[in-house]
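Regression report. Comparing outputs from two consecutive submissions.

Submission 1:
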Amino acid sequence: MFKGFKEFIMRGNVIDLAVAVVIGAAFTAVVTALVTNIFNPLIAAIFNVETLSTAMTIPLRSGENPPVLALGAVLAALINFVLIAAVVYFVFVLPINRLKKAQARRRDEGVPAAVVDDPTTELDMLTEIRDLLAKNAIAPAQGTPALSTKH
């Protein structure tokens, strides 16, 4: 059970998704601030109300404190959605699609994506590190005190 969970977590898609969620949350704060502080006041000024959430309200019955349909609040949410969707499209989707098309074009033309003459594996790298450490681990010369952590 844990092995399957570990494989799931170690997939690149899960990490990419986590990064996307964090970036999305941070970006949502920016777009919300933009909508709240720029678009809402402009639209509220057009309708001559204090905030967009109080614009275009329709009372459902007469009397004291009637329930109302707040169409202005819905409009604010729609503006927020459209702005987020536009930024996601133009900042993420469009450049990635262009990159994929360019890669496909190069692949179709027979241009290799990357040519590596001598691919180094992790085992090769670890072996090289071990050999370097062994080479630099020289025993202290006779008469020379060994390094100590005592003070």
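Submission 2:
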Amino acid sequence: MLALIQRVSRAQVDVEGETVGRIGPGLLALVCAEPGDDDARVVRMAEKLLAYRVFGDDNGRMNLSLTDVGGQLLLVSQFTLAADTGSGLRPSFSTAAAPAEAERIYQQLVLECAKRHAPGVETGRFRAHMEVSLVNDGPVTFLLRT
């Protein structure tokens, strides 16, 4: 499982002109399921998303997590993270989980994060054409893998 996380001041997802997810300060996580992802990897990713220290403490050092600062979380499915770009000029997506399995894993991650994070979780819409807008705070961006 992959997650490209960005510390944001705000972010939102629109589908066909409708806002389906919106957060203020927190994390935007673009999430990709890979073949072989299981319940343990989902739990581990939820733990990492909520505990990864990317927010500044009183000294400006990245020592605080999303949970520590009470930030919001926006999870967006993004199968293109698993693209194989090693050869040619067109990406291959054979390293991403099949759509039905990916959706199950993504929904499981949403539920796991919501269960653990009191401020709640906003989402995009799986398999929809989404317009994601954000203000990256820093910029701060990390690729997490479980």
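Expected: both submissions complete independently.
Actual: both completed, but the second showed a warning that disappeared on reload.
Relevant detail on submission 2: Residues 99-116 form the longest helix (18 residues).
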